[in-house]
Design goal:
By secondary structure, the protein is α/β, with parallel strands linked by helices. Helix content is 35%, strand content 21%. Helix 9 packs across helix 17 and helix 17 packs across helix 18. Bound molecules: NADP nicotinamide-adenine-dinucleotide phosphate.
């Protein structure tokens, strides 16, 4: 059993005064990294004075991805001053060659190396050379472009003896596991902060969403896999449900280059289950040992579960789509259901509606694609858009109206007379299509209900218990509002 890594919050600011102010605003951290290379007026004494937490003083040179543009002698003086003034740690780049500082202050040196392009071929030799210097902590950060790069770092962590301290980081989205599961990498600490281009996670997200301080060897790992992942609310929903249900589990974004990449990572970290999104919804079909009938009919799965050493796959999009209709008591048998679009979600919706006895018509701008989706469920292809009065239930399975282009609709504004309009888009919560339909007297359902429904079904399948009521919806709504405030739109 390894010990829980500490949490180090990285602070950057334009001036020393602001760096100090930010330092004092940190609410929960074991260590604070003060990035003196981010300020225009680096002043060691000022940033160290009055601190209440241990610090790492970093003054990264431009040649190592930092912001310091002065000479190497100036940099060395700043770092020496920090060590002499009692900074608990000072970060020195391995390639800087400040041997005098290492010799004099070795145990307080974080010897660091960064590769922003990938994993160097000689990583092990490099790590051994860094270990041999006697630095207190060896920090190696490499750009992770696939999940397997985390395994390279996991292997590397095994070279460090129990008395040696290391921080091994995969920079970028594919390396997020090295930050959240730092404990599995034997890390002395994990860095949190707002340096987004290296894939840092904010301290609040690490602590509140991923429950960083509770993660142990026993914590079950789940995740969302696809490529690329972009912004997703699934980690918010599942982590909130695990926390509320008191389940020792964490759910991570796991952007896998391909199915093999995910499987290799999942084996090494004992991943128990995953939500699956594009393009792996199809590529995993022939990788699982067990597959439910719905996935076969849809031609895509969206959930994986590890049963012993076998992967099972299922499709909860169908149940997630139907749930809001059931909740509203909608009778689907004999209902004239028109689907807009002929992509992945249209296939799941067509299977769902047909399985409940609806008369399915698929309308897409590409008539051939509409015909393929329709024929798979014994339905028809129709004109795009469908004629007024030709449907009882209209389901939008196109992205038209999604953030940021929220003022458009796949339907003309006067194309309704009655019926129920169900838009799969969940950002925004109320789309232009829904507004137009409501104005014309139709009932409407937004995509958040389905998003929550499919996630709740995944949670049940993985854990055998229901997600606590309302928790996933609240988490998703909160994150969507944050994304929209920052204009990072969720797709
Ligand atoms: P997809 O596989 O890419 O399919 C999109 C479909 O929309 C295709 O048929 C595409 O036609 C059509 N389309 C795209 N732009 C169009 C336009 N301007 N006019 C007319 N048709 C257009 O996407 P998907 O996975 O089915 O997702 C579709 C939407 O559903 C997305 O907004 C997604 O966020 C949402 N969704 C929500 C949930 C949920 O849980 N609420 C679940 C899944 C999906 P072409 O083939 O001709 O390009």
């Amino acid at each position: 059993m390894t010990t829980t890594p500490r949490l180090c919050v990285t602070i950057t600011a334009p001036t020393t005064a602001e760096l100090r102010r930010q330092r004092d605003l940190v609410a929960d951290a074991d260590l604070i990294e003060l990035r003196l290379d981010s300020v225009s007026d680096p002043d060691v004494d000022a940033v160290l004075e009055g601190r209440t937490r241990p610090v790492i003083v970093t003054c990264r040179a431009r040649w190592e991805g930092g912001g310091f543009s002065g000479s190497e002698d100036e940099r060395r003086s700043i770092l020496r001053r920090a060590l002499e003034r009692g900074a608990e740690f000072v970060d020195i780049e391995w390639r800087a060659g400040f041997a005098d500082l290492l010799a004099e202050f070795g145990p307080r040196v974080v010897l660091s190396s960064h590769d922003f392009t990938g994993v160097p071929a000689d990583l092990q030799a490099q790590a051994d050379a860094m270990r041999a210097t006697g630095a207190g902590v060896v920090k190696i950060a490499v750009k992770a472009t696939r999940l397997r790069d985390c395994l390279t770092l996991l292997d590397l962590s095994r070279r460090f003896g129990p008395a040696e301290r290391a921080v091994l980081i995969g920079m970028g989205d594919a390396g997020m596991a090295t930050r959240v599961l730092a404990q599995r990498f034997g890390a002395a600490w994990t860095y949190a902060g707002l340096v987004r281009d290296v894939g840092q996670i904010s301290a609040s997200r690490l602590l509140e969403q991923f429950r960083f301080r509770q993660i142990t060897d026993a914590t079950a790992v789940y995740g969302l896999t696809g490529f690329p992942l972009g912004h997703s609310v699934s980690p918010d929903m599942h982590n909130a449900a695990f926390a509320e249900a008191g389940i020792d589990a964490v759910y991570l974004p796991l952007p896998a280059a391909d199915a093999d990449d995910f499987v290799a990572f999942a084996r090494a970290f004992g991943v128990k289950g995953a939500s699956v999104t594009i393009p792996h919804k199809v590529s995993f079909l022939d990788r699982v040992q067990e597959l439910d009938d719905l996935s076969r009919r849809v031609g895509a799965l969206n959930t994986l579960r590890m049963d012993g050493d076998r992967w099972s796959g299922c499709n909860t999009d169908v149940a997630g789509f139907l749930q809001p209709l059931r909740d509203r008591g909608v009778t689907l048998r004999g209902c004239r259901a028109s689907i807009l679009g002929a992509g992945g979600s249209a296939r799941a919706v067509a299977v769902a509606l047909a399985s409940e006895g609806a008369r399915v018509t698929v309308h897409a701008r590409d008539a051939q694609k509409a015909a393929i989706v329709a024929s798979a469920v014994g339905g028809d292809a129709g004109p795009f858009p469908p004629a007024v009065g030709s449907w009882d239930l209209l389901v939008n399975c196109t992205p038209v109206g999604m953030q940021p282009r929220i003022d458009v609709s796949p339907m003309p504004p006067d194309a309704y007379d009655r019926g129920l309009v169900y838009d799969l888009i969940y950002n925004p919560a109320v789309t232009r299509l829904m507004r137009d339909a409501a104005t014309a007297g139709c009932d409407t359902i937004g995509g958040l209900d389905m998003l929550v429904g499919q996630a709740e079904a995944q949670f049940r399948w993985w854990t055998g218990v229901s997600a606590p009521t309302g928790v996933m919806r609240t988490a998703a709504t909160r994150r969507l509002a944050e994304f929209n405030a920052n204009e990072n739109h969720v797709v």
